Amino acid sequence: MWVATVVGLALAGPAPVTAQDDDAGVTYDDILAGFADPTRWLTYSGDYSGQRHSPLTQITPANAHRLAPAWTFQTGFDTRGRGFETTPLVLDGVLYVTGSNNYAWAIDARSGRPFWQYRRQLPDDLTYGASAPVNRGFGILGDRLFMVTLDAHLLALDRATGSILWDVVLADYKVGYAATLAPLVLDGKVIVGISGGEYATRGFIDAYDPETGEQIWRFYTIPGPGEPGSETWPDDPLTLARGGSGTWMNGSYDPELDLIYWGTGNPNPDYNGDSRPGDNLYSNSIVALEAETGALRWHFQFTPHDLNDWDSNHVPVLVDLEWEGEERQVVMLANRNGFFYVLDRETGELLLGEPFTGTTWARELDAAGRPIILNDGSQGCLPDPWGSTNFYPPSFDPNLELFFVTARETCATFVKQEPEYVPGRQSTGGVIWIDQDQGWSALRALDPRSGELEWEFRYPSPTFAGVMSTASGLVFAGDHEGNFIAFESATGKDLWHYQTGSRIWGAGAMTFMLDGRQMVLIPSGSTLVAFALPLD
What we know:
Layout: E1 4-7, H1 28-32, E2 53-54, E3 68-74, E4 89-91, E5 94-98, E6 103-108, E7 114-119, H2 128-131, E8 139-141, E9 144-148, E10 153-158, E11 164-169, E12 184-186, E13 189-193, E14 204-208, E15 215-220, H3 237-241, E16 252-254, E17 259-263, E18 285-290, E19 296-301, E20 317-323, E21 326-334, E22 339-344, E23 350-355, E24 362-365, E25 371-373, E26 395-397, E27 402-409, E28 412-416, E29 430-434, E30 440-446, E31 453-459, E32 468-470, E33 474-478, E34 483-488, E35 494-499, E36 510-514, E37 517-524, E38 527-532
Parallel strand pairs: 1-7, 2-32
Antiparallel strand pairs: 3-38, 4-5, 5-6, 6-7, 8-9, 9-10, 10-11, 12-13, 13-14, 14-15, 16-17, 17-18, 18-19, 20-21, 21-22, 22-23, 24-25, 26-27, 27-30, 28-29, 30-31, 32-33, 33-34, 34-35, 36-37, 37-38
């Protein structure tokens, strides 16, 4: 076997990606069509809605117990303290996969054999990128793949060879910036966000030209002096310039409204709000941005003046839903602060906010949608900094009208301390003590109109696995013990599981048709495992 390896910015000759067609590649209309072609998965959630719900039906509750591994791809390395967080893309029988430390591969979807491998030459003085050396996937358009890097760059790669076509700097990694998400590709734009909110950084969302890499627009998640939202911060330009609010998880897109929906992270410094009195917009929020200009249409803040690192870096799930007798276009998400929210996605109007875990921090919202805090930590433990859920993808089944999410029940004590501002170092304002004996998780199915629990399946420890559902009535999820599990969507019945050998952290499954067989893939530890029903 011969594999072309592309190292750093050097170019390699064409790799034998013979499964690819010679056409112009992926168009915006292809991505817009979502799951219309069952052989493809062209964006992080499968389509722009963020529902992560596949229409495939070959694998069903009746035959899921027969699932078996088809092949396993080994990356050759683990990610210390994290996971294999990517979602592969698939086109013409080729998988495009990113890994930790900015490795990437084109892989034969039939065998798991790599066609080419890319490895970025990273600097040895990474900041945030050294503590979270992960990547969540490619974006794709035409014959190009788009990937962000731990030293805060955006790359365009030739999908046939893995060679670099252009490379642009997003921000200065030496200050604390990095990038880890899968780019969201629109018509003529590549949308990305930034990591590093625990450092003295200022979050942003960017749009770039896919042909040239030229920046089209930038939206800062921390306003500048005198801008709307700056009144929720001290009147101090330096505080705003290092206000945090990273944008490190993927957004969703409504092509009819032409709005991008994106979550934002914690204000800086973390855990200690003494130096930043106020609500600290637009941290811990969802922002709806005009795709053409990056202008803010509306925002909703879930956790004003966050003191617990409960980022709102979640995949927004876009659904058209009958609401109190009226058809509404909504965006829904389960938040790290322990509440499940439903908002009108055109206006940002709050329609529902209900707790989905046993958090004692707050149990209801006021008329303005602000949590009514019952326990600031002085009355017993709170959910840990990883929160009641996290960035890993949820799923929504539009037929059953159920929202599936991995929920976490944990116990932590937050102790405030004075932050220290040193460029390139975390400016954390506290320490956290976690009671490991009280932690557990559950896959939960929520009614989107009430937030009520329809069913749950409990895991023995706090879990970071994402979720995918299918139209045949299945939900695929996993746990920290390494089990990849298929459930019946309507009941939560455990139908099948496979021990992957490593915890499933940050990733959700994806699925596609290949030669008449439905394939299901899950990243776990250092492996990507493909499953299918037996050929007989």
